[in-house]
């Protein structure tokens, strides 16, 4: 029987997918259960946490502006994180010794886990409604099974009728997303696309609502 283990090499993953995964792994390893199962992780959580946070921050900066310096800094941070995840995976596989419940508690990806063969499909049934407070909008949509995260782009309508997209929000939930700091009386447009390890889906058709 094949022994279960987690993947140690995430170098082929996109920046968006790696950013989401790294955050998930860090959160899982900080849980009481994982700390009990893996008391001496390599690297230590105190070492892993700043590496994850540094990469996520630099990835967000590089993805929005993308100067040569910012991309270079992001890539250096990515390499450091990949090395740390490789070491952590080796430690986890050694301690877990094939025990599935232990492996799953780390948030890492099983080597035997089937992967999506293509980028996720388009989001459907998008609803934009008033939030509980003035200046808030609530966003709900039908979840996409193969998606790891959703990129929500927010914009306003120019005098020419063209939508000016000026803000991006990332979420892993399809329900109860609250978009805040909206100016009352302004019509806001929202569109969504999906992401997973294989790529990015198409944008959905924009929906709009006037903030109250």
UniProtKB/TrEMBL annotation:
InterPro entries per UniProt: FN3_dom, FN3_sf, Ig-like_fold
Gene3D superfamilies with a match to the protein in the record: Immunoglobulins
Q: Where are the coiled-coil regions?
A: none
Q: Which PROSITE patterns match?
A: FN3
Report the superkingdom from the record: Bacteria
Domain Fibronectin type-III, residue spans: 119-212
- Protein name as annotated: Fibronectin type III domain-containing protein
**Protein source organism:** Sphingobacterium puteale
């Amino acid at each position: 029987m094949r022994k279960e283990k987690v993947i140690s090499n995430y170098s082929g993953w996109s920046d968006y997918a790696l950013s989401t995964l790294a955050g998930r792994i860090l959160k899982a390893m900080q849980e009481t259960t994982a700390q009990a199962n893996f008391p001496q992780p390599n690297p230590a959580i105190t070492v892993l946490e700043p590496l994850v946070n540094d990469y996520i921050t630099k990835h967000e900066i590089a993805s929005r502006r993308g100067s040569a310096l910012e991309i270079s800094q992001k890539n250096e941070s990515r390499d450091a994180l990949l090395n740390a995840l490789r070491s952590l995976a080796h430690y986890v596989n050694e301690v877990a010794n094939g025990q599935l419940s232990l492996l799953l508690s780390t948030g890492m990806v099983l080597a035997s886990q089937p992967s999506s063969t293509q980028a996720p499909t388009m989001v459907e049934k998008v609803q934009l409604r008033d939030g509980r407070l003035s200046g808030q909008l609530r966003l709900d949509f039908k979840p996409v099974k193969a998606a790891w995260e959703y990129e929500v782009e927010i914009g306003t309508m120019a005098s020419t009728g063209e939508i000016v997209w000026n803000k991006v929000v990332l979420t892993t939930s399809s329900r109860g997303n609250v978009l805040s700091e909206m100016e009352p009386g302004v019509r806001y447009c929202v569109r969504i696309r999906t992401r997973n390890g294989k790529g990015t889906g198409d944008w959905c058709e924009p929906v709009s609502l006037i903030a109250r």
